[in-house]
Amino acid sequence: MIILNSVFILTYLASAVVASSTLRLPTFALLLLSLVGIANVACAIALFKWKKAGFYGFIGTTAVAFIVNLSIGLDIVPALLGLGGVGMLYGILQIGNEQSGWRQLD
Question: Is 30 exposed, middle or buried (CB count within 10 Å of its CB: 0-12, 13-18, 19+)?
């Protein structure tokens, strides 16, 4: 999560430089998605420290990314696929009965 989000941050920031001429995407959207990536890195670090706030942060950043993706004209199906990551993370945290990751989060 940390590595992938870091790559996305760099990609979005680099794209923001050329957005007006070639990508025809609003610069604000790319910068906002960069901030979402930074927040995702912070959320991943919080999860490594066993904090529920990391999971809830992922929910918030995913919602923001969903809205931004729709606002730049992305179709609903690809935008909804981004929401699947939160569902998968929740499912992973539920694995195991008494020793599940969710129960170990503060």
Answer: buried
pLDDT tens digits, 54-92: 999 999 999 998 998 888 888 888 888 878 888 888 888
Q: Compute and round to an integer the Cα radius of gyration of the chain.
A: 15
**Number of folded domains in the chain?**
1
Q: Name the residue range of residue 93's domain.
A: 2-104
End-to-end Cα distance, the chain: 20
- Please give the model's pTM, rounded to 2 decimal places: 0.76
Three-class secondary structure assignment of 7-54: HHHHHHHHHHHHHHHHHCCCHHHHHHHHHHHHHHHHHHHHHHCCCHHH
With a pLDDT cut of 90, the percent of the chain lying above it is 20
CA distance 91 to 66: 20
Which residue in the block uniquely carries the two structure tokens 């420290």? Answer: 49
Question: Is the CB of residue 22 less than 8 Å from the CB of residue 29?
Answer: no
Q: Which residues 6+ apart lie within 8 Å of 103 measured at CB? A: none
